[in-house]
Amino acid sequence: MSTTSSLDTACEQALSLLKQGNAVALPTETVYGLAVDARNPEALAHLFELKGRPAEHPLIVHLASAEQLEHWADAVPEAAGKLAEAFWPGPLTLILPKKADVPDAVTGGKTTIALRVPQHPMAQELLQAFGSGLAIPSANKFGRLSPTKAKHVRADFTEEEVPLILDGGQCEVGLESTIVDLTGEKPEILRPGAITAAQVEAVLGQPVKVAAVVNKSAKESKAPGTLPHHYAPEAPLKVFNKGALEAKVQAMSAHVRNAVISFNRSPRIWPSVFYWKRAPQDAEAYAQGLYNWLREADQTKPGQIWVELPPDGPDWLAIHDRLKRASS
Ligand code: TXA
Ligand code: MG
Predict the structure, then answer these.
(1) Does the beta carbon of 60 sit less than 6 angstroms from any atom of ligand 1?
(2) Ligand 1: which of 24, 44, 60 to mutate, judged by most atoms within 8 Å of the beta carbon?
(3) How far is CA 184 from the centre of its chain?
């Protein structure tokens, strides 16, 4: 079948680029990533340069299956085995003690390593063919929004910078993976994602801590890439509760072009430059769409982006987390 053979051709092209030390963009179920050979220090240096990412921000090594864990992690505690069994392949990243031979560039000099087995068929196919670990950060310039469509990757990187983007359509989850640190006394969620604390607790049979979003420098933060003002649109973003947002919208003059993401329908007919997104009430659909709406909103060059405060509850935690970072 032609689709299969073209997929194979793209995969082969990706493989040869990776083996030459180049970066390849690819879809995962969470967000698009930019992959390089995690054992190749020059390729890793190239990746940091492409993203404009500070060296102390460690990367997630992606594997085809949990069987490869022992090549990267020095110890695989029982909890890691349980979580891998329950959630891999899927949107979960585990922090474990690293093996001594893992390049320093991957872990930012840390003694721990982040590991994930992604589910997207294109990521799986490439990882299986590659046979080793790929370091895959989100495919955006440092500090920008993660891409959830192939065209978002192209908006951040030229053809010269990233010659190949494997197009797997829109990412299903839309927010980055849940990161669980298993190197401390108690398991701790460093970055909330689609897999909730309750799901992790149910599998481990013990409570987990959830790290708060607070103002810390890269050195102080346990997950250095999870700093506030990460995952940010270009326009300043502000979150308002329903009443406050309605009042802001009522008071807005026709000359001020602020973009709005609300659970309500737009109360007026706005000029075409104005952006109004009526967001779904469903947390999964909201998570899938959020980065895309923020990019669309940015394109209308608004003064600010106003977002209606989403509901509380465990399913909305990752969304609150990203909105808080984007607005800080
Ligand atoms: O869903 C995802 O995880 C996506 C897709 C592409 O797989 N990847 C992703 O990678 O979000 P990146 O590089 O954008 O974010 C990696 C996060 C950062 O917050 C970093 O601080 C954290 O993982 N991290 C990596 N190694 C760590 C370590 N040893 N200890 C604590 N945090 C770590
Ligand atoms: Mg990122």
Answers:
(1) yes
(2) 60
(3) 23
